[in-house]
Amino acid sequence: MNLVVFFVVAVVAVASALALVLRRNPIHGALFLVVNLGCVAVLYLLLSAEFLALAQVIIYAGAIMVLFVFAIMVLIPGKEETGPDPLRPQRLLALPLGAVLLLEIALILKSSVFQAAQPVAPPPALPAGAGGIETVGRLLLRDYLFPFEVTSVLLLAALVGVLALAKRKAG
Amino acid sequence: MSNTVWLIPLFPLLGTLLNALFGRWIGRHAHWIAVPALACSFLLSGAVFLRVWNGETFRGDLFPWIEAGTFRTAVTAQVDPLAAVMLLVVTGVGFLIHLYSAGYMHGDPGYARYFTYLNLFVFSMVMLVLAGNFLVLYVFWEAVGLCSYLLIGFWYTRKSAADAGKKAFIVNRVGDFGFGLGVMALWVALGTLDYGTVFDEVETLSPETATVIALLLFMGACGKSAQLPLHTWLPDAMEGPTPVSALIHAATMVTAGVYMVARTHALFERSGVALDVVAWVGGLTALFAATIGLAQTDIKRVLAYSTISQLGYMFAGVGVGAYAAGIFHLVTHAFFKALLFLGAGSVIHAQGGEQDLRKMGGLAPRMVLTTITFLVGAAGLAGLPPFAGFFSKDEILASTYHRGRLWLWALLLLGAFLTAVYIFRVVLLAFFGGPRMSKEVAHHLHESPPVMTLPLGALALLTAVAGVAVGMPSTQGTAFARFLSPVFPLSEEVGHGGLSAYALLVLSVIVAVVGLLFAWLLYGSRPIKVEAIGRPRNRLHALLLNKYYVDELYGFLFVRPLLRVAGFCARVFDLGFIDGIVNGLGQLVVGWARSMRRLQTGYVMNYALMTLLGAVVIVGFLLSR
Amino acid sequence: MDAALIPLLPLLVVGGTALLVIVLDLLPPRDRKGHLGVVALAGVVMALLVSLGLWGREGRAFRGMVVLDNFALFLDVVICYAAALVLLLSTDYLRRNDGERGEYYILVLLSTLGMVLMAAAADLIVIFLALELMSLSLYVLAGFFRGRLAAAEASMKYFLLGAFATGFFIYGIALIYGATGSTALDRIAAATRAGTRDPLLLVGLGLLLVGFGFKISSVPFHMWVPDVYEGAPTSVTAFIATGSKAAGFAALLRVLLSTFKVSQPDWTVLLWVVAVLTMTVGNVVAIAQSNLKRMLAYSSVAHVGYMLIGVVAGGALGAGSVLFYLLVYTFTTAGAFGVILLLERGRREAVDLDDYAGLAGRHPVLALTLALFLLSLIGMPPTAGFAGKFYLFGAAVRSGYIWLAVIAVLNSAVAAYYYLRVVVYMYMRDTEGLPTGPAPSFAGRLALAIALWGIFQLGLLPAPVLDLAQAAVAPLLR
Predict the structure, then answer these.
(1) pTM here?
(2) What is the secondary structure of C41-57 as a DSSP string?
(3) What share of chain B has pLDDT > 70, as a percent?
């Protein structure tokens, strides 16, 4: 059952990602991104990371994408990008390069995970509720307290930065 | 003691920094920084001297300096009796001249710059004296040369001053080239540059090696101390402000060569030949410069040649192995020559910048203090008892005589006679006889302010008493030599009692007095006409007046051929050959640069593609390993 | 103070100052913010002193995520010097360009905080967060002059490419986590030592190198450099060139030397190639530039190449030379950008080579100062640049990388061409450049004086500082 769901979702995820890149209409692109993010959330669920899946849906698929769509609608008047693509030659390079990188990653996974003599880090059996909000909270505020706090400073910097760029001149 | 020692150079360095950084605001108050800095250094030098007197010595590293492979050098200082004496002279005379400068340079637009350089000079000179290894010595040897260059060209808008600065720098470069080679040769031969180790291991050198090294080092000394054949820069250096001439080109920097030879005497003794060379170069220079001094008409140039000549005496003393006598003459010379220069400065100042002896005369009644102190200085230089120069010069003469260098002794004795003649010629022409200056200048004649006469008085006092105080000959040598005995062991024949010594003494006095009388006969006994001074009367006089045509000779022998070769190289070799290759290569690179530049399109996506490319290559590379 | 917090002390000082400046920014006066610069400077100087005072102490905090060792402290000093010089140069510059706002100082401090944290981070997660903290602040600072198109472009490019590179970086962290089950540097090191050569781990390292390569701007991840350096406010350019580079090298050295010691043969070959490419491309393209900021941008790329030589050479000498060179480079580059900044008049930036024609006649002191910094960049004795290059190339020779040293020396010769061209323009051309402006402010002069002091102090007496730098890398090599 899990495997079936995985494959269906994975195919949708890849397809939506491709569509995002290939469509020239930005609104369509944004909507495909929503689909993609939703698929990834399902993948998280399959890995029993409930909290992560939830956060993915609320923050990315929800808040951030709404912002994207707003921004696109406000900033880009027409339906499609206008004018010819100045970077057409680049695609000729980008495609093979991307393909090579994909190949390389596939090679690594093949040699490392499936062919290794012994599993590098044997996956421990997950306790109940491992991906739940409680476990995540415990980890965040105990083992990863310091990164958690640094993140708050990072957000502060982002806040100040937005102010700096957006604030009207005083007086 | 270590802290005190490091403070001595620190104060002038601080003074330099303050005046350099804030000179614009300090401006005409610069002396309030520079002079107290020197006073502090002087007091500390006094304290250090007292402790050395009590038998202490000091040696220490300030910090490790260069460490490259097996080559390790630290900034090392060492204080022994020789260094202590030099410290006192440098900071003491330096202090008096700083004080004097506050009056002499008053109102100059470059006032703060002047004191910056002067402090920097004292700092470098103190470090030169303190140096505990050859590398530090070399660095500050160059540093004092730099200060000298800066100060000679202080009034750089005057072409003659700028040229003189350049000349001093270039001539010194010839000497320093040898000096640098000498230091390197020392490193190759012994693998160390530390004084102590070098002097301990000097016996392991073959005499030939020692000769090469010592002569190379002496080349540097010749340049710095203006000895034949590298003496030509010093008279031109008189373009600098007079206190600078007094401090750098009479009392301290030019004596660095003597100090260096005395400091490294172990090396010169190992060679033997080198020591003879030093003695003869010194003796010849002493006579040579004295003859030129006879004919010059510029008061400062006379003093400059006199300095060259007296430095020759010091080298002669050091060269015959009478190191203490050489250093003693260095000290007394610092007193009376600084005094003479400052006195000359006072005269020049009073006459609004006039340096020509032909336009002076009869200054004595208007400038009593200057006249008296100048007379003291002249007596010191001429070697009249009981002034300091008498004792120190006689020490050198006696040493050469007793060590059997009769020819050298004769040269020096003749030089002593000429010395008395030329210095009293200056005295008579400048201070006595009828005034020859214009009415206007005569009207403005005035004695200098106390800030200038005070140093004159102090130096006159030192000239008067230094000889009697520490230079009285005795069976154990002079008190001065006994103080230096840890550095220069008292030699065998020092106890030169007996008739011969007294005869020599009397002979010295007679020579000096005869010289004085001769000068009076020529310039004092009857009124002289202006045109008569400095006009070539015969071939010999013309030769002297033109300084033996040495400058012209060098111009003919070196400068012009060099320019011609340089011109040839520039046109044919450089432009044609080297530039051809270089330009070709350059154009290749520039062309490459242009094409590479095209990659920089400005499109973010292109840049991102490059990043992707990099990532693919890196991952691929790591995968393949 | 709680002993557990001591490793965080430099961080706390910088971060606390940032918070203080945020609060002060809300208080009057509203139109003048110069005093915030003074507060920020005081904080940075304080952090500098704290770092110096902690020298020799070791400690860990927060489950070993933050370490205190001499390595972190040495880089703290470099970073604080960079930040202090930038702050000194900024106040007057902002006022002249009508951009004096409190956010500037806050962002500089937060970015400094990120850099200091990068030097002390011992966990890939923390390194990542510190990198982001530093970068985010710098993205905004690059576009701080909102009115200017070039500034907006610089900010945008920096942000987009930075985000792209960060993607690689965090993917690398994920792969390493996958291979070892940890993000803590010491545990990764333990895992690599025990296990066989795991391609997953290696590739993770490769992707980390992409991220670091972007931050330190090595070829081929340097493309953003000229555009960003040119468009950003000059004070920010100086900060990007000095501080962020030092922080990038800090994390790079710590990860490579202490964590991936086992894979040294692998990354050494890689970095050898990158070093050669970086210095060659940087120097060659710099020749074709007529804009001084762009020229210095490429020159800074080239200098990264020189520093990578030290990483390749490895060992106490190689890594120590890198730290030494970072300090040298900070003084020199901050000084050179400082002169450019002080020459700007109103909205007109003095960045074209022609603006510098005959500068020696109009601004003799500034011209001489710039000439000295350029000589240090060339590597002329007795400036610090010489000592720095000497140690780097010497380390390469001693580790047997003769060819690397030869290529580096050839590169230095090429570099002399474009640096000296500026000097020639300043001293030997008499055409009209920018009109003479008012004398630079006290703060600006002080910054230049400190930088000059630095290049001569390090140039004349390099040995003591090199000793400290070698002592600083000792904890990584244990």
Answers:
(1) 0.68
(2) HHHHHHHHHHHHHTTT-
(3) 88
